[in-house]
Specification:
- The chain is an alpha+beta fold.
- It folds into two domains: 206 residues, UDP-n-acetylglucosamine1-carboxyvinyl-transferase, Chain (Alpha-beta prism); 208 residues, UDP-n-acetylglucosamine1-carboxyvinyl-transferase, Chain, CATH 3.65.10.
- Helix content is 32%, strand content 25%.
- The chain has 14 helices and 23 strands.
- Strands 21-22-1-23 form a four-stranded mixed beta sheet, with helices on one face. A four-stranded mixed beta sheet has the order 2-14-16-15.
- It is globular, with a radius of gyration of 21 Å.
- Bound molecules: ligand EPZ.
- The site of ligand EPZ has 25 residues, from helix 1, helix 5, helix 6 and helix 12.
Length: 424
């Protein structure tokens, strides 16, 4: 086992390159099941969630060939089973995209209920609603999503009761080969949904409206392979924006789509942080003034991302005064707070709203990553704290950040991975 050790406080400098978007990559990798041909996917982040997704496809019979660290050839024509390997499926929430893709291709699926980061209940009732609207009979029992449809998935009108990224993606996957036009209303608008739609359109699908709250999918039974490059990861970019802002550093963040970062740059500018946008880059200017406290509310895209809640809390701990984060997406996103409190953070959470009284420098401590973005927040806290911070359970961090230790080290952070004696 390993832990991350950081000596702070750090000043960062230079430039960092953002990797491909995790939440687009997992959707596109499993979408190849529905494409049923050979695809080449580029700009895949080198993270454990993607390695796991590729392993699941191979266990189902697909042929996966590594072209380089971030580029793979995936041929799903040989897939001969709809049974995804339980031991792997339970480790990652996005595994449930296998259900939508398998229903589209085979008219049947049997997928273990998803795992992933545990921040409260994460129901899948809207996924089931979409599948049933398309004619599938769905059973959720003994820990499986067990569904089947006679004569193929049907075009349908799906109205989601809540905005759901996963539900929107699964509805697109399940309908992409159906006869007729499926309409999804109250759809999620995240950039990774647009990326999935673009990938499937490169494969011969006819999807319009992705990125808006109404998406139309004109099914096509004859999809074909393609070569596709994924968008950069807006949450990784946001994490490095906070790293620079919290340490008072100037940092060039390359390989970004500034439009995707707008909710973060506009909100964080209210603290006094200055950003300079390039075509595919974002410069975080060195802090010249005292930053101001702000109030944030997480919302579905294009609102402020819930996946930036923990990281932003670290910045607010560094700002004199009282700030608030109102979390509206997940009912238990604040599991990181106890770990930050061990570092001296002054945070109270009540009814989904964290009140953060910042200004006291955080103190180094031994902490844990309790989920993916909480783990990233612990790294940021280690960068600003006085002393040596160690972070355990870093497997969470490695699920979604491509070489974050190497990237931070290359821009001046004193950070390394250390082997832990395993006495178990
Ligand atoms: C995706 O999770 C992301 N994961 C999450 O990122 C992200 O936090 C989340 O979207 C919101 O942006 C992946 O893309 C793999 P949702 P997902 O369905 O799809 C409720 C990360 O750190 N809901 O949009 O699970 C749900 O409880 C991860 O990269 C239902 O009620 O999120 C939540 O309150 C963490 N019924 C809200 O909707 C359903 O059937 C949003 O969930 C589905 C969801």
């Amino acid at each position: 086992m390993e832990k991350i050790v950081i000596n702070g406080p750090s000043i960062l400098n230079g430039s960092v390159k953002i990797s491909g978007m995790k939440n687009a990559a997992v959707a596109v990798v499993f979408a190849t099941i529905a494409v049923n041909d050979e695809c080449i996917i580029d700009n895949l982040p080198n993270i454990s969630d993607i390695n796991l997704a590729l392993k699941i496809l191979e266990k189902m019979g697909a042929v996966v060939e590594k072209i380089d660290e971030n580029k793979y050839k995936i041929d799903t024509r040989p897939i001969s089973t709809i049974m995804a390997p339980d031991e792997d499926v339970g480790k990652m929430r996005a595994s449930y995209y296998i259900a939508g893709a398998s229903l589209a291709r085979f008219g049947v699926c049997k997928v273990g209920l998803p795992g992933g980061c545990d921040f409260g209940s994460r129901p899948i009732d809207q996924h089931v609603k979409a599948f049933e609207a398309m004619g599938a009979k769905v059973k959720i029992d003994e820990g499986y999503i067990d569904a089947s449809v006679v004569g193929g998935m049907k075009a349908a009108n799906v109205y989601f009761d809540c905005v759901t990224v996963g539900g929107t993606i699964n509805a697109i996957l399940a309908s992409v080969r159906s006869e007729g036009v499926t309409v999804i209303d109250n759809a999620a608008r995240e950039p990774h949904i647009v990326d999935l739609a673009n990938f499937l359109n490169f494969c011969g699908a006819d999807i319009t409206g992705a990125g808006t709250d109404t998406i139309k999918i004109k099914g096509n039974k004859q999809l074909h392979g393609c070569e596709y490059t994924l968008i950069p990861d807006m949450i990784e970019a946001g994490t490095f924006m906070i790293a620079a802002a919290a340490t008072g550093s100037e940092l060039m963040i390359e390989n970004v789509i500034p439009k995707h970062l707008e909710s973060m740059t506009s909100k964080l500018s209210e603290t006094g942080i200055v950003f300079e946008e390039g075509d595919e880059s974002l410069l975080v200017k060195r802090k010249t003034t005292e930053l101001r406290p702000i109030n944030i509310k997480t919302l579905p895209y294009p609102g402020f991302p819930t996946d930036m809640n923990p990281q932003t809390a670290v910045l607010l701990c560094c700002i004199n005064g009282s700030s608030r984060i109102n979390e509206t997406i997940f009912n238990d996103r604040f599991r990181y707070v106890n770990e930050l409190k061990r570092m001296g953070a002054n945070i109270d959470v009540d009814n989904g709203i964290a009140t953060i009284v910042g200004g006291q420098r955080l103190r180094a401590a031994n902490v844990r990553a309790v989920d993916l973005r909480a783990g990233a927040a612990m790294i940021l806290a280690g960068l600003v704290a006085e002393g040596s911070t160690s972070i355990e359970d870093i497997f969470y961090i490695e699920r979604g950040y491509d070489n974050i230790v190497e990237k931070l080290s290359s821009i001046g952070a004193s950070i390394k991975k250390v082997q832990i004696q395993d006495f178990s």
